[in-house]
Fold this protein.
Amino acid sequence: MKTKTDLLLDLWIEARTRFTNQLQDITTEDLSKKLSPSPNSIGFLIRHIGDVELLFAKNVFGASNIRVIAKTVIAKKDTGDWTALDELKTYVEHSFNELKKIVELQTEADWETIVETKEFGRKTKAEAFGRIISHTAYHAGQMAIINKYGQYNKP
């Protein structure tokens, strides 16, 4: 029988395919696409997903070894800097691996532990994990719509 950690990891990894499946077909040119009047490009959203995954690993699950400069969270807007496809893919692969490593260390009891952040207040780790799952799926949906209907923008 699978543990709660195994089940939650399976859920996250499956939900994250809404994002990762798109990465296979994204081109460098696609990174600058925006859907007016939205200010965010596909490149920004890819970087943002990675930033937030690393923040979750560090701040929710306690991965003290992680050093993250969450540029998209700090800037709070698309600065046009997210145009290097290979770097972005490497970054989100890294963020996935770091979050996965720390989640794999969670015990059954850990999922009921309360964490608190300024972004979403007090939640159990299980509830907080639901937020990262929905966050990635939400932005993956935005990416799909932008890629389909958006316009190329010069950085």
User: Anything to note?
Assistant: The radius of gyration is 16 Å. The mean pLDDT is 94. The beta strands are 114-117, 121-124.
